[in-house]
Amino acid sequence: MNRFEKGLDVFSEYMDDGWEKPKNGQMEDPLDSVAPDFRRWIIEAYGEIYGRPHLDKKERALIVIASLVTQGAHTQLATHIKRGLNAGLTKEQLAECIIQCLPYNGFPRVQQALVILKQVIEE
Amino acid sequence: MNRFEKGLDVFSEYMDDGWEKPKNGQMEDPLDSVAPDFRRWIIEAYGEIYGRPHLDKKERALIVIASLVTQGAHTQLATHIKRGLNAGLTKEQLAECIIQCLPYNGFPRVQQALVILKQVIEE
Amino acid sequence: MNRFEKGLDVFSEYMDDGWEKPKNGQMEDPLDSVAPDFRRWIIEAYGEIYGRPHLDKKERALIVIASLVTQGAHTQLATHIKRGLNAGLTKEQLAECIIQCLPYNGFPRVQQALVILKQVIEE
Amino acid sequence: MNRFEKGLDVFSEYMDDGWEKPKNGQMEDPLDSVAPDFRRWIIEAYGEIYGRPHLDKKERALIVIASLVTQGAHTQLATHIKRGLNAGLTKEQLAECIIQCLPYNGFPRVQQALVILKQVIEE
Amino acid sequence: MNRFEKGLDVFSEYMDDGWEKPKNGQMEDPLDSVAPDFRRWIIEAYGEIYGRPHLDKKERALIVIASLVTQGAHTQLATHIKRGLNAGLTKEQLAECIIQCLPYNGFPRVQQALVILKQVIEE
Amino acid sequence: MNRFEKGLDVFSEYMDDGWEKPKNGQMEDPLDSVAPDFRRWIIEAYGEIYGRPHLDKKERALIVIASLVTQGAHTQLATHIKRGLNAGLTKEQLAECIIQCLPYNGFPRVQQALVILKQVIEE
What we know:
4CMD/NDH-1_regulator (chains A, B, C, D, E, F), globular
């Protein structure tokens, strides 16, 4: 099993039940026309980083969300809130994760993140 | 019990065994000469934010550390690595927390954080 | 008078004349469904921070706007430009506040902020 | 030739063939109503900074794009991708410039930038 | 009077009484060996930006300090705290400026800034 | 040749003449005690990212330096200024790279970077 396939295995744990692992070991991405390796690098990162021991998938999702709240990465935050739900986090835990960032980031970052959380939950 | 006292109770869970809760409900801080309310606000934040339900103290420590890695707040990162150890995280878990930030922050932030983790552990 | 009520008093100075202080000491917020304490924390911050001595409300509004320009917090910048106008700043002073950030932030942050200032003024 | 005129000369190298240098030495800008000097400062920066020796215009465009990717300045990134194309960079070189930022910034910043590159190229 | 000389006039208002305007219209800087125009650009920025109407020098100093607190620019923060004192701000006002950044930046940025304020005041 | 070995080949182009490729395919790093995979990931990134076509090694070094200036990553900036020199950039080109960041980042980031450039050159 190569890096990409190992990555897909770990990646699937953060996707909802309807998600199907690509059979030919390839995964299409809207960015293929400008950066055809980009999707592969993301998937490989799941194998190399998310697949490591000592922390479970819920804890890793919380860490990623805290980092995205802090850097104000809104599109990715919406994506990773969904992956966090798929990994087993409740919406209360996701709200607490964002709230826990408040004393270390201030109101603007946290407000932006809570708006995104609300949008994802209401979808 | 007022906000400060409630905060001290939660704060004590992140301090080592030698730490003693101030008896007179006051806590000296090096910054008292320029901002005498600053320490109080920190302690109150422990009661208001860390003391909330849905996430345990290890999860909250991981979230804070991920945020500090992301913003490159080195002094505070050293402090919160120690508090994470006091809250029960192992040094392997702390290393994984920082490593999990790699795909979302890149090498510089993570390298700086690992250097600080190494210094704290070696102390 | 508790923290929230004290905060409401200070907060009202940054709101336009049509704003009415909530009578039941509660204030609805779109984020109540995900983080029901969030609005309360903001209001309390007005009492704890904005309500302090040594700087007047115009100076505090300038400081907040400079910080929001620097962190690129666009939604909050629009809000605080309006609050600055309510606090008595002229649109020329608001433009100068953003322009004064230019040598310390560069063109992108300042251009984004001027676009927002223009939108708020034209509304 | 004053600073503004010198700036216009350098600026023209980053504009497409249809762009015409303003004849009266003035250049209108949507931000004139709030900050009438803002456009002049940008043009002067082309004379003072872009017009310097040791690096050519393609290299300067790559540097600016790398900085804008890093700070997540999306509107300005779209503008400078177009200027980079006008300065002679290929779309492959622009994609590589953004990809080279990946190990130092992580996936979110780079994904946002690739989305913008794709939009500019497809226009 | 050229840009540099106009800049020196405005710059002198932020320097202490012992500071003497360079007689030959030139100003030495430690960075001259790598970037001989750098000091000139800073001085010119004082004429172009600080010298504008609608805000006084204390207000401009507060805005700059708020921006430097937000971006965590420690060396420049120490410099501009001194210039703020020279411009007539009291140490209490400087502390309040930093404290006013707390709700919008969180504890780490503000703590770092207060440590620097304390160092400058104690010097 | 695996990823690490391919990475070492590309990495060697950014190292000075005295640098020797590790014979056993392993490379010691001060961070091995906390994150033994960290050095391998860096080296692999050289093979995966720096080793790509369309941009030469000088251009890639300029892009990385521009990104590090922008994020204020001082330790890594010193390292990559040295690697830029090894890749064939002159000290004048390195100064221009940092200066080109000025209009997009402002004085603090650029001043910090020029101080580091000066230190590296004087070593």
